[in-house]
Amino acid sequence: MIFPISIITLSIVQVYLGFVPLGLLVILLMLLYIYSTKTEIGFEDIFVNNFSFFLFISLVIISLLRSGHPELSIRFQLYKIFYLITFILFFVKLFIYFTQKKLSFIDNIYNFIIIPFTCHLVLNIILSVIGVKIGQEVLTEEAITTNSVLLDSIGINSARIQFPLSGGFNNYATIVGAVLTLSLHYFFFISKNKSIVIVNIILSIIVLFCVDSRSCLISPFLILFLFYGIKNFKKISFLRLSMLWFFFGTLALTIILPLLAEMPFILNITRSASDLATGNARFLIWNIAFSEFSDFKVVHIFGFGEFGHYSSGASLIWSIIFSTYENSELKTPHNTLLIMLFDIGYLGVLIFSIWVMKTLSWVLKYWRNNKNISLLFLSFFLFHLSVGNTESLMFYYSTNYFYLFIAIFIAIFVERITVDNYGKKISS
């Protein structure tokens, strides 16, 4: 008996949003184990073949126990750890089970990411239209008085919209942009289930206009154009070099953005030339952050733990930039590499790079056998690299996105084990 896909889909929507109680997630996990006891692939296969990933997760757990946040209790941290472990176990078993039922990586992405988030977009827009507010208010005075530049560009004079089921403008935009990237590539390169995908694309664009996230709106289309240009290539091994953007993208942006600020047509989608030329004050933040690591300390090897930017004292310096926000001293460096350096140190970044490069190498190699699977995964990964240079996308600063990131990598892990170890041909 197949575990009811509709129930899983609904639960996935809630899990990503953080609205599912841990108890329900545990119950779902137990039910999934009952229905998936007889599978060729076991959890040990995923663990052995992706040891560096689980080592990385171990470092994340240690960082949570070493949290520098002044108000988070150890009980709350243990809850996050238990939730993270249960979440990983759930998705490993979920994807193993449905892969054994002849569903590919592409099918899993559609069933457990695109469909749930489409449902979420519909629900969020409806709740916003009828004026429902759920959860803690995250609007600030600055957010209330700041118009959406994207809406202004199409003649709509409106402040940015805070949707009820979201964790703030940037956090929500990144996860919507990531799923938009998947949907665009699904629509243009994979010829099935297009009606839901079209709805997702349209609603995602509307939401990104409303929250005024230009990078999360532009990046999916730039990545789509890239793959249109290389889709007929026999090899795309040159995309290994994309990891260089993870390490040096920050430096590149300090050169590129001031040049873009000189172009008149670019100013139509930015608040001001100075805003773009400074990366919305990110250049100042990054300079302060890199100053911390310019003088080597032993603690830099393992990091400061969660909210390492606060423990190090760096965010206390740049907090003046966020003077209109509550807890301004806790604001992140708005850069994924930097937040990883602060939290899990050089060792954590090294381990992250190893498992990502190992996965990336397999996906690039698999391009010849199943271009659609490689393309779908790579589109998400390039979005992560693109937006990750201006947002802190890992860990619990962008919780929903972090869970999405983990789920997609687990899906490709299962695909890889299925193909390599069992020689199964997965349909596209």
What does this molecule look like?
Helix content is 67%, strand content 0%. With 428 residues, it is mostly helical. The protein has one domain. The radius of gyration is 21 Å and the shape is globular. The model is unreliable at 1-7 (pLDDT under 50).
Keywords summarizing the entry:
single chain; 428 residues; mainly alpha; 20 helices; 67% helix; disordered N terminus
Sequence of secondary-structure elements:
HHHHHHHHHHHHHHHHHHHH
The number of E-state strands comes to: 0
- Count of distinct structural domains: 1
Gross morphology: globular
Distance between the termini: 24 Å
> How many distinct helices?
20
Largest sheet: none
Average pLDDT confidence is 84
Strand content: under 5%
Low-confidence segments, ≥5 residues, pLDDT <50?
Answer: 1-7
Which range best describes the helical content: under 10%, 10-25%, 25-40%, 40-55%, 55-70% or over 70%?
Answer: 55-70%
What's the gyration radius in Å?
21 Å
Q: By helix and strand content, what is the structural category?
A: mainly alpha
Fold topology:
Elements: H1 5-17, H2 22-35, H3 43-49, H4 51-65, H5 74-100, H6 105-129, H7 141-145, H8 149-153, H9 169-189, H10 194-211, H11 214-230, H12 243-260, H13 273-277, H14 282-294, H15 299-302, H16 308-311, H17 314-318, H18 336-365, H19 371-388, H20 399-422
Helix pairs in contact: 1-6, 2-5, 4-18, 5-20, 6-9, 6-10, 6-20, 9-10, 9-11, 9-19, 9-20, 11-19, 18-19
